[in-house]
Amino acid sequence: MADILKDIKIELKDEFAKFEATFYKEVKTKISLLDTILGYIVKRKGKQIRPIMVLLTAGSCGSINEKTYRGASLVELLHTATLVHDDVVDESYKRRGFFSINALWKNKVAVLVGDFLLSRGLIMSVENKDFEMLEIVSDSMKRMVEGELLQLEKARRLDIKEEDYYQIISNKTASLFASCCAIGAASVTDSKEIMDAMRNFGESAGMAFQIKDDLFDFSDEDSGKPKGIDIKERKMTLPLIYALNHADKNTKNRIIKLFKTKKISNEQVQEVVSFILNSGGADYARNKMNEFKNKALKCLEILPENRHKTNLITVLNYIIERKK
Is the pLDDT of residue 11 over 60? Predict the structure, then answer.
């Protein structure tokens, strides 16, 4: 399963090379410190699932072109900027097993680097008059900030309902997936029907992606994410929300008390995990994840059969079956 995205990159070898050339051009500077930091970021790139989705969506809807490569670069610039900023906000000193930018160069530099990446994406779009793609990404940026703030507001009171959770992850995570697919479609077609369908595909895929992340707390697989990390960080995930909503008053109060503990022990984390598992929280979340997967598949029915559409379905399956 781990090699699926690599296989797709190989199949998209020429297209991916053109995307990366476009991206690298945008992050090249004449400022030595900035160039060093951006080089560090580029060398430690992740799975690049978002630009892959831009390219595959474009190929599913038409012919991949220069606008598609700019769209994929715009998404990658935005996503990278948010990761740099997130590490500052979360006071995180590791990213993908390596030191984060704020760990190596401190918060001020990290914030400025994130700002630079955002500005490069905006400038590239304006210079090429890619206003529709810029509008799509701007909406995503707004939603991501709203999602973060709503999560902070709700987390303080620990009163997140299931509908609140869906709103939060729709804004924080799914909005960027939706933008990837909307941009991919917009780069090759003027059909609003197709663009809306692909935006909805990305939204549902992003919802499934985040719920899968929630489930890593309860997996026996080595995901690279420490077990119980969401509980230690007091994140209200779907399995926990479901379990609390179906618990008796005394049990609910005890779990919430544990959840509020600033330095929760490993034994207490395991108690919360066991409570969630025994309440069916993980099973419920898994079923919801599959519901979003099916919604995403339904959106693809508008497209003709081709290898890019087949690979989009492969990516969707990867999202819910991945181990990390």
Answer: yes
Of 210-219, 259-268, 286-295, the range with the lowest mean pLDDT is 259-268
Model confidence pTM above 0.70: yes
Q: Which residue, among 88, 258, 86, 286, has the nearest Cα to 158 in the 3D structure?
A: 258
Q: How many CA atoms lie within 13 A of 8 on its CB side?
A: 27
DSSP H or E run through 289: helix 281-299
Question: Helices H, strands E: what count in the chain?
Answer: 16, 2
**Domain layout of the chain by residue ranges:** 4-321
Environment class of 174 (CB within 10 Å of its CB; exposed 0-12, middle 13-18, buried 19+): buried
CA geometry: angle at 40 spanning 228 and 43, to 5°? 80
From the list 85, 83, 7, the residue with the least C-alpha distance to 45 is: 83
Determine what percent of the chain is predicted with pLDDT higher than 90: 63
* Ramachandran angles phi, psi of 45, nearest 5°: -65, 150
- Residue pair 177/198 in contact (Cβ under 8 Å)? The answer is no
CATH fold, domain 4-321, is Farnesyl Diphosphate Synthase (1.10.600)
